[in-house]
Amino acid sequence: MAAAPDMGTTNDKRTLVVAGGGIAGLTAALALCREGFRIIVLERAPSRRSEGAGIQLTPNAFRVLDGLGLGKMLRGAASFPEHIALHNASSGAELNRFELGKTIRKRHGAPYAVIHRADLAALLAGQCASLEDIEIRYDEQVLDAAVHANGVTVLSQSGTTAREINATGLIVADGVWSSLADIIPDRAKPEFSGQIAWRATALNEGTIPNGIEANNTHLWMAPNSHLVTYGMRMGREINLVAVTQWADKAEPKRGQMIPLTDRAAFNQHFANWNAPVAEYLTSDKLNWTGWPLFAAEKPRALSHGPVVLIGDAAHAMLPFAAQGGAQAIEDAAVLAKCCGAKTGDLAGAFAQYGQERMERVSKVMATARKNRRIYHLPQPLSFARNFVLRHTPQERLQKRVDWIYRWKLEGESSSKECISE
Ligand SMILES: Cc1cc2nc3c(=O)[nH]c(=O)nc-3n(C[C@H](O)[C@H](O)[C@H](O)COP(=O)(O)OP(=O)(O)OC[C@H]3O[C@@H](n4cnc5c(N)ncnc54)[C@H](O)[C@@H]3O)c2cc1C
Question: From ligand 1's centre to the CA of 316, what distance in Å?
């Protein structure tokens, strides 16, 4: 299989290749296009994602997407829960509420949204497709890249055809299982956390138990497990994520989703949960898929010359702060800002991006680990947690996450248009 040089990229515009067309890659394409770059996104999947589960978009992420011109469409496609109800999973009792809706909009100037991942992918890809300077190539896997004095040569494969693309820089956005991140010496490698997230979506029909509402988010906490539910698509669908301990001695294989084969073992995780929710989770109405959770402790090197890491490839984190996607979106905004400010010095811009992201992302990752401990506390510590939660005033709950949600790009300007030929 001989590699054919890709002649399509030889123009005088600064061309960046983005490896991976997930949330990180597509947001980066949009943000960098605004700074005058020509972007080629290479995505190994044969087409845009049309299945999957939901994702919560916290105000820090929503604000960036708004700035990229997606706000109106997002407001049409997403749902906006009024609050997150925090429950003791065994009694079912509501311990407290974290107000979203107007409270969050007023506090942070942007909403807290939930959306089906396929709908978010459609919005991001649609926006990219409307810009001449962004090209998304599906069914094209990046195999490797070579750094040289003029930038980087990216080797990719589509079917049996191999290609070489010469670019000014490479943005590695190929997710938690990144094979390309190893181009960067001393990058953070994710390790297995000992937990698995079971995901399911369900139509919002009569079978949903009282206590799981489509217009609100619910968090149910139990020793060694928890459940998050929220409605999507105007309340027509419910998204469920149940996190439990991984029971096998052998670690799960990297990069593989796990079908639910042992129902009895799965059901055991919810044996002490309140009956309506436990019966629903263990009924055969739900089609669960397991996602073993791998995470790094903190980001390490994020760039090396003209190659840079963003999203899960840079800092795979536990999902307990609902921030992996949000941090990927922030990465894209900061990367574009640095590249726009340091024209002609891409390696310098990538290095600056790395410096600017390190502290914040490390702190968010530590918060996700802390939330895991709190959500999964064993008895009797869980009694103390529940007592404290019941008596924590709303203002204090909000203050704990203000630092995450109020994030803004410094000197943010959303007026730049993508420059197309
Ligand atoms: C259970 C769970 C719940 C979560 N909930 C939330 C939440 O509510 N809010 C939130 O912000 N985050 C959440 N996250 C985290 C979030 O899903 C991820 O952080 C986010 O999807 C990362 O985006 P990404 O673009 O970096 O990676 P991905 O979404 O994995 O995208 C990587 C892309 O690269 C492609 N690719 C891979 N290798 C190659 C290659 N060699 N060449 C070309 N293409 C390639 C893949 O096909 C894929 O499309 C959750 C995660 C989990 C596990």
Answer: 9
